[in-house]
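Subject line: Sequence and fold of a protein, written as structure tokens
Enclosed: The protein record, placed directly beneath this head.
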Amino acid sequence: MKNFEFPAPVPLMGRKAWSIFLLALILVGVVAPVFNLGVPADSVFHVSDYAVALIGKIMCYAICALAMDLIWGYTGILSLGHGLFFALGGYVMGMYLMRQIGQDGNYKSELPDFMVFLDWKELPWHWALSDSFFATLILVVLVPGLIAFVFGYFAFRSRIKGVYFSIITQAMTYAAMLLFFRNETGFGGNNGFTDFKRILDLPIATPSMRMTLFVLTGLTLLGFYLFSRWLVNSKYGRVLQAIRDAETRVMFSGYSPLPYKLSIWVISAVMCGIAGALYVPQVGIINPGEMSAANSIEIAVWAAVGGRGTLTGPIVGAFLVNGAKSWLTVTAPEFWLYFLGALFIAVTLFLPQGVVGLVAKIKNKKGGAA
């Protein structure tokens, strides 16, 4: 048997194209909102609060799509449960924001309003650190990361893969959604958390705070993109791609796939958790609906539409699909789900490399013709 050679680093983009994309991310995530603060509201260059909130939300989704690309596009593991990790990060941040309401709530109590309504006398044990912003930042990483580690360890050690792995990730997410729907778990039941007032004792609904959260989200997306680019072009990333292409041969070459699959699974989950934590203060609500099967499937759709295994593709896919969703849910809400299903089928059948792959193919044809 021939010695197995790991795949060479994949040229994600040309240097010029990568520089343009990087600059575009910086402009969207940093320069544009800062410039917008000094632009009069009646100016054509002014970005409305709705647009800021929408783009900020989509950037959170883009982080999830990027995380999906690492586990699916580069490792070959399709997860249909990443909505759980996104929601867990959101719930951790939501718990902190609920504690920030304090005496400003409807019941003038230090307990969240829903607990007062349910006649709770004290906070549950899992709310113990929710009043600390520093502890919240740690838990945003720790909670989804720990759950992903435990789940992934037993799943990968049992060599569960393919459609079976996808199904159990979906089952895990559905079970968590049912758990969070219950009032006695202390997560707000089907209403979840909302009506946030402050973050770090600063009003959360002001334009300056919205811009701050917008910038933080843009910088986080940029940071994760650069981190992912470095990761997939390293030796570690080449092993991941080898596992995707020929896991058995990787094992015969002396590499154990378990630590690689488990580590990238945890990294991907943590990225989604951080995205969820950034999402909640910008959108203003978190409830068990974020753990629905449809939400997890949508994350996979974003990666597929943009182009798996490209890093830029999932980000593009998140913006394209959610931009279309924002428009269609206003103009023709009854057709949105049909459009989403048709889009996924069309991409799977005719654009297996997604939009970015199609653009690259057209560019290569033009270059060959020249």
DSSP finds 13 helices and four strands in the chain. The CA atoms of residues 319 and 344 lie 15 Å apart. Residues 8-13 have pLDDT under 50 and may be disordered. The longest strand covers residues 193-194.
